Amino acid sequence: MDRFDLSEPLYALETHRADMGEVTIADLFAKDPERFADFHVELDDVLFDFSKHRLDRTTLALLVDLAHAAKVEERRAALFAGEIVNPTEARPALHMALRNMSGAPMLAGGVDVMPEVLAERRKMLAFAEDVRNGVIRSTTGEAFTDIVNIGIGGSDLGPAMAAQALSPFVSPHLRLHFVANVDGADLADRLKGLALERTLFIICSKTFTTLETMTNAAAARGAVVEKLGEAAIAAQFCAVSTAPNEVAAFGIQDDRRFLFWDWVGGRTSIWSSIGLSLAIGIGAAQFEDFLRGGETIDRHFLAAPLAGNVPVLMALIEIWYRNFWDYAAQAVIPYDQRLARFPAYLQQLEMESNGKSVDLSGARIESATGPIIFGEPGTNAQHAFLQLFHQGTEIVPVDFLVAAEPTAADPHQHNLLVANCLAQSEALMRGRTREDVEARLRGQGAPEEKIAALAPHKAFAGNRPSSTFLYKQLTPRVLGQLIALYEHKVFVQSVIWNIDPFDQWGVELGKELALRLAPLVADDRAALDGLDSSTVGLIAHMRKLKEG
Ligand code: F6P
Question: Residue 206 C-alpha to ligand 1 middle, in angstroms?
Answer without folding.
Answer: 7
